[in-house]
Amino acid sequence: MPAPDVDSSSTSAALPPGMVLGPDGKPCRTCTDWKSWNKIGKEKGKKGSKSNADGAAGGATATAAAGAAAAGAAVAAGTGSATFNYEAECPPDKEILGRATWTFLHTMAAYYPDKPSPMEQSTMKSLLSSFSQFYPCGHCAEHLRQEMKVDPPKVESRKDLSWWMCGMHNKVNEMLGKDVFDCNKIDERWRDGPADGRCD
Ligand SMILES: Cc1cc2nc3c(=O)[nH]c(=O)nc-3n(C[C@H](O)[C@H](O)[C@H](O)COP(=O)(O)OP(=O)(O)OC[C@H]3O[C@@H](n4cnc5c(N)ncnc54)[C@H](O)[C@@H]3O)c2cc1C
C-alpha cells in the first residue's frame, strides 16, 4: 500500500500552509489545491527560477489561472502574446483531479447494470479496491480506504452503486465543509439531465 502523503502543518519544513508532501517527501500537486501550489511558484520566482513549466508557476498569470482552476473553469488567462488554459495544459491539482474523478465514478455507477452478474459485481469491487490503492492524492485515497472498510461498496444493482457512491462523495463533502448533495437527484445529475430539458 502506498505511504500516505503529509500535510505541511505536520512538518517543521518551511512550506506554505495547505501544501501537502507526497510519499517521496516532495510537494504533491495532486494532493494540494492550486492556490497553495502556486505559492511555491512565487517563492521559486523570487529565487530567480527561470522556468515555471512545472505548473508551480509564479506571478500574475498563474494566479489568474489558479482562480480559473479553483472555479473548475477552463478559462484562458493572458500571458502577453499568447493565452493559456490551465485545465487544458497543466497537470491537475487536487481540485481538478477530484472533479474529473467524481465525474467518472458517478457516471460509471449511473451506467452500471440494473442486474449485474456475479462476475460484474466482483469486477466492480476489484476496480474500486484498486482505485482506492492508486488514487494519486494519497491522503484522499487513505480516507477512502478507511470509509470503504466501514461501508463496503454496494454492487448488487445500479441503484445500490449510485447511492453508495453518492454517500461516499457526501462524506468527503462533509469533511471539507461543503454542502451535502441530495442523492435523490443522482440520476438527474449523472444520467438523465434535468426535467426542463436544458441539457438535451
Ligand atoms: C475519492 C475522492 C476522495 C477525495 N478526498 C479528498 C480529501 O480527502 N480531501 C480533499 O481536500 N479533497 C478530496 N477530494 C477532492 C474533493 O472531493 C473535490 O473533488 C474537490 O474539492 C473539488 O470540489 P468541487 O466543489 O469542485 O466539486 P466536487 O466535490 O468534485 O463535485 C463535482 C460535482 O459532483 C456533484 N456532486 C457533489 N456531491 C455529490 C454527491 N454526493 N453525489 C453525486 N454528485 C455529487 C456536484 O454536481 C459537483 O459539482 C477527493 C476526491 C475523490 C474523487
UniProtKB/TrEMBL annotation:
Region called Disordered, residue ranges: 1-26, 39-58
Main location: mitochondrion
Cofactor(s) essential for the protein: FAD
Catalysed reactions, semicolon-separated: 2 R'C(R)SH + O2 = R'C(R)S-S(R)CR' + H2O2
Gene3D superfamilies to which the protein is assigned, alphabetical: ERV/ALR sulfhydryl oxidase domain (1.20.120.310)
ERV/ALR sulfhydryl oxidase domain location: 90-190
E.C. no: 1.8.3.2
Keywords: Disulfide bond, FAD, Flavoprotein, Mitochondrion, Oxidoreductase
Compartments (UniProt record): Mitochondrion intermembrane space
Lineage: superkingdom: Eukaryota
Pfam families reported in the protein's UniProt record: Evr1_Alr (PF04777)
GO CC aspect terms: mitochondrial intermembrane space
MF terms in GO: flavin adenine dinucleotide binding; flavin-dependent sulfhydryl oxidase activity
Family matches, as InterPro entries: ALR/ERV, ERV/ALR_sulphydryl_oxid_sf, ERV/ALR_sulphydryl_oxidase
Name of the protein in its database record: Sulfhydryl oxidase
